[in-house]
């Protein structure tokens, strides 16, 4: 399913389940360093160079940054949050395509 489809699915499911006090949220990560990049044949330097160009914060993300956001969303500290699509992407979502390319 495409990202836009998952975003809409999150919104619709959150709306449907809110009356049952069930929260539905999603995270939309940007470039996060994981072992997947090694498997695909990318070097850390290649990923870092792409991140400097494609992210407003000019760096890649770390797995811990994503897991901390998820931990917050599943905790009682976010008990009044539902339907959120949280970008954890170093500002990539605010950049126009011409800045990324």
What does the largest sheet look like? 2 strands, parallel
Low-confidence region ranges = none
- The largest beta-sheet arranges its strands as 1-4
Mean pLDDT: 90
In terms of quaternary structure, the protein is single chain
- Rg over alpha carbons: 16 Å
- Percentage of β-strand residues: 5-15%
Q: State the separation between the terminal residues, measured CA to CA.
A: 24 Å
Percent helix, as a range, is 40-55%
Q: Give the overall form.
A: elongated
Q: List the helices and strands in order.
A: HEEHHEHEH
By DSSP, the count of extended strands is: 4
Class from secondary-structure proportions: alpha/beta
Describe this structure in words.
The protein is α/β, with parallel strands linked by helices and 101 residues long. A two-stranded parallel ribbon has the order 1-4. The protein has a two-stranded parallel ribbon with strand order 2-3. Helix content is 46%, strand content 12%. It is built from five helices and four strands. It is elongated, with a radius of gyration of 16 Å. The mean pLDDT is 90. It starts with a helix and ends with a helix.
